[in-house]
Amino acid sequence: MQYESCTTNDKCILAFQTSLPLPKLATPNIGPSHDPAYDTCILLLHGFSGSSAYFTRNFAALSARHWVVAPDLRGHGFSGRPAGGYHVARLAADLRALVAHLRAAAAHKNRDGTASPVRIVPVGCSIGAAVLWTYVELFGCADFAGFVFVDQAPLQDRTEAFGGWDKRLCHTGCYDEATMLSAQRAWMRTAADGLVETHRGLVAECLGYRRGSGAAVSAEESKADEEFFVAISAMCDGRWLARLLADHTRYDHREAIELITVPTLVMAGMWSGCFPLEGILETARRAEKGEGMQGKVDVSVFDSGHWLFYEEPERFNREVVEFVDHWTT
Fold it and tell me: Where does the AB hydrolase-1 domain lie (predicted)?
C-alpha cells in the first residue's frame, strides 16, 4: 500500500492508501491499452476517530485479489484539518470527489481515453456506513457495484416518532441530548485532563474480547491493540470530532437505506459495544425493501466486537472477497 491524495471542491486534501499506483493524470499514458488490475476496487472506509491504518490486517489479503483503496476521512489520519466540514454530508461529498479521482486515474490507463470500467465496492465501517447511506440519498447508487456495511445501525439516537427507535436498536452509549453532550465533553478533553482515557474507552467499547467474547488474547496483545488504536485516535482534533459526533448521532438513515438498488452485505459484531445486534440487522431489513433487492441482501454476524475486521480478519477478508467476486464477475 502507498499513500496518494486528491483535493475536494473546498480545497481539503484527502489522503488515501492504494494497493496500485495511480498514474499522473497530467502526463501522457504509456501503459497498456487496458489494465484489468484496475477493473474492480474495494474501497475501505474507517469509522469515527479512525484512519485507513485500521485495515492493517486486511490490506494484503484483499489486494491479492483486487485493487484496494482506503482513505483517511477529512479530519482524520493524514487528511486535511479544515475548520469546518464536520458533517456526514460533507464526508459523502468528499467520497464523491475521491470516486471521481479514482475513475479518472483508472481511465487514464486506457490509451484511447475511454471511460474506466472500474467497479467500486465500498466497505463502510461504523460512520463509514453512514457516509455511504448519505451518499445514496444525495447521489444515488450508480457509482457502486455493491455495498458492505459493517456494524452500524441506521439511527444512533432514541426516538418515539416516525416508527420509534428504542434501546433495543440505538447506540448503547450516545443516544440522546444528555449522552451526546457527555460524549462531546469527553472528546474535547486535553491530554492533561484525561483525553487518553477517552481514547482508551473507545478501545474498550469496540474490541469484543474486552467485552467477554472469549477470544484468546494475551495481556501483551491487548496492550499492543490499545496502543495501536489510541495512537490513531490521537491524530484527530477532539473538538472537531465532537462537532462531527453531534451531526452523526442525529442522522436518521432508515429511508435512505431503502433507496439502495445494488447487492448489499451487512456485517455485525455479536460483542459490539456500540450497537445491539437488532439495530444493525435493521440495516438489512431496510435494504431488502429497495427496488429489485430481493435475494441481494446478506447478513454475516461475527463473534467479535465493533472492529470485527481487526478481530477476525481472515473471515472478514474472505467474506468481502467472496461478495465482491460474486457480484462483479
Answer: 42-318
Q: Provide the 10 A C-beta neighbour count for residue 257.
A: 26
Is the Cβ–Cβ distance between 19 and 63 less than 8 Å? yes
Domain count, the chain: 1
Q: Which among 163, 87, 134 has a CA at the least distance from the CA of 260?
A: 134
CATH code of the domain containing 271: 3.40.50.1820
Q: What is the pLDDT of residues 211-239, one digit of tens each?
A: 887 788 899 999 999 999 999 999 999 99
- Which alpha helices (H) appear in the chain, and where do they start and end? 59-63, 88-107, 127-139, 177-187, 195-206, 219-233, 238-250, 254-257, 277-287, 308-311, 313-328
Would you call 72 helix, strand, or coil by DSSP? coil
Each residue of 242-298: pLDDT tens digit? 999 999 999 999 999 999 999 999 999 999 999 999 999 999 999 999 888 989 999
- Contact in structure between 64 and 56 (CB atoms under 8 Å): no
**For residues 110-125, b (16+ Cβ closer than 10 Å) or e, as one string?**
beeeeebebbbbbbbb
**Which among 158, 198, 187, 190 has a CA at the least distance from the CA of 174?**
158
Given a contact cutoff of 8 angstroms between Cβ atoms, the answer to whether 139 and 96 are in contact is: yes
DSSP string, 87-155: SHHHHHHHHHHHHHHHHHHHHTTSTT-PPP--EEEEEEETHHHHHHHHHHHHH-STT-S-EEEES--SB
CA pair distance 106, 108, nearest whole angstrom: 5
- Distance separating alpha carbons of residues 19 and 271, to the nearest angstrom: 31
The CA distance from 238 to 204, in Å, is 18
Q: Which of 308, 295, 307, 264 is nearest to 282 (CA)?
A: 264
Query: What is the domain range of residue 242?
Result: 2-328
- Tell me the three cell numbers of residue 296: 441481494
Query: Which DSSP letter does residue 255 get?
Result: H
